[in-house]
Amino acid sequence: MSSPDVGIGSSAQGVQLPHDHPNRHANDRNPSVTTIKITLFALIAMATVAATIAPPAPAHASGGFASPSGSTVCDVFTRDDGANFATCDIRDHTYVAPPKPASCQLGGWGDRVNMVQGSAPGFSCHGDTNVVPGLPTLPYGQTRSAGPMTWDSEPSGITCTDSSTGHYFRISRESYQLG
User: Fold this and answer.
1) Which residue has the higher pLDDT, 39 or 19?
2) What is the DSSP letter of 13?
3) Least confident among 3-12, 137-146, 163-172
4) Residue 21 CB: number of other CB atoms within 10 A?
5) What confidence tier does 170 reach under pLDDT thresholds 50, 70, 90?
6) What is the mean pLDDT of the chain?
């Protein structure tokens, strides 16, 4: 034997109560109030879960920039350990990238170079992009620095140098150099 459905404005016996009946709850008279309360509760619960599972930021952004041509976009960070970190993405490159390592299971390879202060640069396996609209342009002939790391913008490409080690990378659509 099945139980009758009990809906808004009905009693446990499945009988519809009149709108002015004393046993009918005030929110039963206005279903939109119940809907708003449930929606509000769901939004608060989702926000609480999202805030709980959000990963901590691994670095502090200090600014990104684009080359005047827009083909190269770089980002500069200071990591939590205080080391500066440089990363540059190159769009539509024509150079031949080094072979993709078997350990790189993400889609991006050969179009991003990273360098941590004190370490040699290298290509990065990644699943994201640094190319975002609205970045400031680093004009040709200008430089930008973060600690011992300096970026030079020239028509031939962007060069990033770590003056503490002499390590560098230069990247353009046509070529790259790592040193």
Assistant:
1) 19
2) T
3) 3-12
4) 12
5) very high
6) 77
Domain boundaries of the chain, sorted by first residue: 1-54, 59-178
Residues 6+ apart with CB under 8 A from 158: 67, 72, 74, 88, 138, 151, 152, 170, 171, 172
Q: Give the HSE-up count for residue 152: Cα atoms under 13 Å, Cβ half-sphere.
A: 11
The answer to whether 177 and 96 are in contact (CB under 8 A) is no
Q: What is the largest CA-CA distance in the chain?
A: 84
Nearest CA-CA partner of 178 in 99, 122, 108, 126: 122
* 80 touches 164 (CB < 8 A): no
In this predicted structure, which of 42-51, 85-94, 167-176 has the lowest mean pLDDT?
42-51
The CA distance from 16 to 10, in Å, is 4
